[in-house]
Specification:
This protein is mainly beta. It has helices at about 70-75, 100; strands spanning about 5-15, 20-25, 40, 45-50, 50-55, 60-65, 80-85, 105-110, 115-120, 125-135, 140-145, 150-155, 160. The chain has a six-stranded mixed β-sheet. Strands 5-6-2-1-7 form a five-stranded antiparallel β-sheet. The protein has a two-stranded antiparallel sheet with strand order 3-4.
Length: about 170
Amino acid sequence: MSEALICVGTISGSYGAHGELRVKSFCAVPEDIETYSPLTSEDGKRSFALALVRPMKNGFVARIAEVATKEQADALRGTQLFARREQLPTLPDDEYYYSDLVGLEVFDTGGTSLGRVKSVQNHGAADILEVHVAGGTATVLLPFTMAVVPTVDLGAGRIVADPPEGLF
């Protein structure tokens, strides 16, 4: 697990004509993305020594030494930036990296399997677990709140949920 990569940001395109990039940080303290440098692509084949230049709306203007033109910066649009797990801080007991939740089995409070976490989403209001329903092809969006998900046991690879009536 120490070799796992965690997505800490994404390149959203070029900024200006001299190879600067627009970068969106997913870190709790957005500026911390620079401290995890060098960052890598998801497959680990590309490395990026990221340097933040200045903040901008919804992110930062940044530089990568190998990127000198607008065209090179545009070619990186959509690239997700990953840090190695050991570079990241240890989280408090009630916080989790999204990648730790994906794949966990979800049980109701009676012990019945509801499915497995397919993805974790956040569209601004709160985190949502996308759960692939056990024995089916459908997925259900489960609010990731203390009221609905009272227990996350990473060691056992399970989540205990108390979903709203009729959700599953």
